[in-house]
Amino acid sequence: MNQYELDTPCILVDYSKLMNNIHRYQQIADDAGVALRPHVKTHKTPEIARLQIEAGAAGITVAKLGEAEVMADAGIRNIVIAYPIVGKAKLERLVRLAKRAELAVACDSYEVAAGISAAAQIAGIVINVWVEIDPGYGRVGVQPGEDLLHLAESLAPLQGIRVTGVLEFAGHSYDAVSDEQRREVAVREAATAEYAADVLRGCGFPVETISGGSTPVSRFASIMRGVTEIRPGTYVFGDLTQVKTGALDIGQCALTVLATVISRPAPDRAVIDGGTKVFTMDGEDSVIGTGRGFVVGHPDITVAWFNEEHGVLTLPPSEQGLKVGDKLEIIPVHCCAVVNMLDEMNIVQEGQVKDTWSIAARGKVK
User: Fold this and answer.
1) Are the C-beta atoms of residues 203 and 251 closer than 8 Å to each other?
2) For 99-158, where are the alpha helices, taking DSSP H only?
3) Is residue 366 pLDDT above 90, yes or no?
4) Of 33, 43, 275, 292, which has the maximum CB count within 10 A?
């Protein structure tokens, strides 16, 4: 089937670009002598996770327990849950998962670690815990220094857990405006993580892994001294946010949304059948001046605004021949958010639909 025969709105993934992105970032990790542990919250698709592992990834990262369960069901065994696990129901699921997968779980407080410890002891198992450090982003993560030392001391008596790693997420790298600034973030992130690992080792914990590196800074892995693995996610598809960070160029973006023009209510306006329930409103407008997306092959069209089911395009005079029924490919601002909105993605090669993959972990928010 030709890709333009698909019903819309739908996700297209260019297979060649997908594989190029997978291999390019695997090569970055290999050249730096570190492991690659891709964050699969971007694609939520076991087939892609397997492609990443076949290319050399050491395992995967997930954001939610539900994602981990889906990936384990698909046969993927080495999983890091980069999110605190809190609450009786989730701890029971974590224990069940730990019996069939090699897990590590993020933790930045005694309360989280104590919950995991108690659940693991009841089950008669030991669960690996990685202490999350805040490298300056201001989200989760214990502060390096006295707070970290106090946390380490509080974790020492806990049974049923092993503190085997540290991890960070330098989300403020997205605010950097140049590669020089991104390099600075990468170096500081690595230094903070290495310091934290030394503190934990000094407290007697067998820290083996120092994990960092989102997509914007992972390409600088070679200067991230002490880091043993990187966890980029969005690199696999790319989007306008990653184009802004310099992680890839717009021609390397593998994921697009195919949409149909459903209305031409004015000469300078067209409306497509995809709004916030497809594209979402996460992320900032395109820095290349095309608004909430980039229409492939039509760089002068602006994706002006969305509501739930409608996307409004602003057309220059050169594009006013667009007709109802025409189909357009649009690169989104944030691909991860788009993937979570739809049930499947169409894998295409040279304009032909090669396969359709279920986005098996979409909606797994628990």
Assistant:
1) no
2) 110-123, 146-155
3) yes
4) 43
d(CA 247, CA 179): 10
**Which residue type does 195 have?**
Y
Round to whole Å and give the CA distance between 113 and 146: 18
Averaged pLDDT, 62-73? 98
pTM over 0.85: yes
Per the DSSP assignment, residues forming a β-bridge with 78 are 102
* Cβ within 8 Å of residue 364, ≥6 positions away: 44, 64, 65, 66, 67, 69, 70
Beta bridge partner(s), residue 211: 167, 229
Task: Output phi, psi for 67, to 5 deg.
Answer: -65, -40
- Could you give the CA distance from residue 15 to residue 18 in angstroms, rounded to a whole number? 5
Q: Both tokens of residue 278?
A: 């497809």
At 273, the amino acid letter reads D
Measure the CA–CA gap between 59 and 231, rounded to whole angstroms: 10
Cα distance from N-terminal residue to C-terminal residue, the chain: 36
The CA distance from 189 to 178, in Å, is 17
328: β partners: 259
Task: Please identify which residue in the block is written with the tokens 């992320």.
Answer: 283
Look up residue 65 and give its amino acid. L
pLDDT band at 213 (very low <50, low <70, confident <90, very high): confident
Question: What residues have CB less than 8 Å from 70, skipping those under 6 apart?
Answer: 44, 46, 360, 361, 364
- Residue among 152, 170, 153, 149 nearest 218 (CA): 170
> Strand 127-133 to strand 161-168: parallel, antiparallel, or no bridges (unpaired)?
parallel
d(C-alpha 224, C-alpha 230), whole Å: 10
- The answer to whether the CB of 292 falls within 8 A of the CB of 279 is yes
Task: Supply 142's token pair.
Answer: 């214990």
Which stretch of DSSP H or E encloses residue 73? helix 65-73
Q: What is the pLDDT of residues 321-336, one digit of tens each?
A: 999 999 999 999 999 9
What count of residues does the chain have?
A: 366
3-state secondary structure of 84: coil
Q: Measured between alpha carbons, how far is residue 102 from residues 63, 76, 95, 131 in Å?
A: 16, 9, 11, 17
d(CA 167, CA 219): 17
